[in-house]
Specification:
Blueprint: E1 3-7, H1 22-32, E2 36-39, H2 68-78, E3 83-86, E4 89-90, H3 96-109, E5 116-119, H4 124-130, H5 137-151, E6 157-160, E7 165-169, E8 183-185, H6 191-200, E9 203-204, H7 211-227, E10 236-240, H8 253-257, H9 260-266, E11 270-273, H10 275-278, H11 285-300
Parallel strand pairs: 1-2, 1-11, 2-3, 4-5, 5-8, 8-9, 9-10, 10-11
Antiparallel strand pairs: 6-7
Length: 301
């Protein structure tokens, strides 16, 4: 059965800029049966927004990007079932051993409900400000994931890479989930990235929304899973639905959700929708969540 997620992007606008009430929205989504909440990451913003590779950047320079792992920790304490994710956390901006500790701690505090989305971001300025080299970021991401998996399973642990090295260190706590926190990678579907996802990831978070194109990419990913002795049916794919608007410019939720069956047929396992686009305020949020949950049953039949 397809799962549904909500993106928490921008919901502070409903509360005069206060993001704390969003924790209650996550609780309400949990009670409604939504499967996952997701939050986008930026540590800082550079001024070259025209470099955004996916069209017009949706926010201005003064938009508040709340640190995702901090927010998800607060949500963990207010929820019981809903899974906690990012779309995506810019992993190389965090030291590898710290990232492993943060994710393990969040998994313990949520009793095993973390499914982390990791990626690279698109701004060199963000790396520069964080004191992290832009060059070699793919290698840094690979080594971070290897370090996380190592520290979640062995002690003492030793690692020697080009971006991180250590000898006989001990890292506790470990994630509650057997095998560690599931890692979904938000990478473009190049041949090399297909290999990265199949080798290091449990899922994929594509920017692509076209079912026909996605079917081809997902087929390649599943083939890469098989080549590594992994079950291709275990591949998870989360897609943010592209909003459909009426002629008068208002968002059409039903027309947007109409894309779900084709996406599921292409191999998508989770769809994410942004409440900020479709709800005029928190008073419409519960009905919005109930409609998303109903889509799961409709697609299943």
């Amino acid at each position: 059965m397809v799962q549904v997620a909500i993106g928490l992007y921008g919901l502070q606008k409903w509360f005069g800029g206060d993001f704390a009430p969003v924790v209650d929205l996550a609780h309400r989504a949990d009670e409604a049966g939504v499967d996952q909440v997701s939050l986008t990451d930026h540590v800082v913003m550079g001024e070259n927004l025209d470099k955004y590779p996916y069209g017009r950047f949706p926010s201005g320079l003064d938009f508040p990007w709340f640190e995702p792992l901090t927010v998800l920790a607060a949500i963990a304490g207010a929820t019981r079932r809903i899974r906690l994710s990012t779309g995506v956390l810019i992993a190389p901006l965090r030291p590898a051993v710290l990232l492993a500790k943060q994710l393990a701690t969040l998994d313990v505090m949520s009793r095993g409900r973390v499914t982390i989305g990791l990626g690279l971001g698109w701004q060199k300025e963000e790396y520069d400000a964080s004191g992290v080299p832009w060059e070699g970021r793919y290698t840094r991401l690979e080594e971070q994931i290897r370090v996380c998996k190592l520290l979640w399973s062995e002690a003492p642990a030793s690692f020697k890479g080009s971006t991180v090295s250590f000898e006989r260190i001990h890292a506790w706590p470990r994630p509650v989930q057997k095998g560690g926190v599931p890692i979904w990678l938000g990478l473009a579907p190049s041949e090399r990235n297909i290999e990265r996802i199949a080798e290091l990831g449990d899922g994929w978070i594509p920017m692509e929304k076209n079912p026909d194109l996605l079917a081809g990419h997902i087929g390649r990913l599943r083939h890469a899973f098989v080549a590594r002795g992994r079950d291709p049916q275990g591949l998870a794919v989360r897609v943010v639905l592209g909003a459909v608007f009426r002629a008068d410019g208002t968002p059409d939720l039903e027309a947007t959700l109409a894309a779900v069956p084709a996406l599921v047929a292409a191999g998508v396992t989770m769809v994410e929708v942004l409440p900020l686009v479709f709800c005029r305020g928190p008073q419409e949020f519960d009905a919005f969540c109930q409609r998303l949950v109903a889509v799961k049953r409709e697609v299943a039949t």
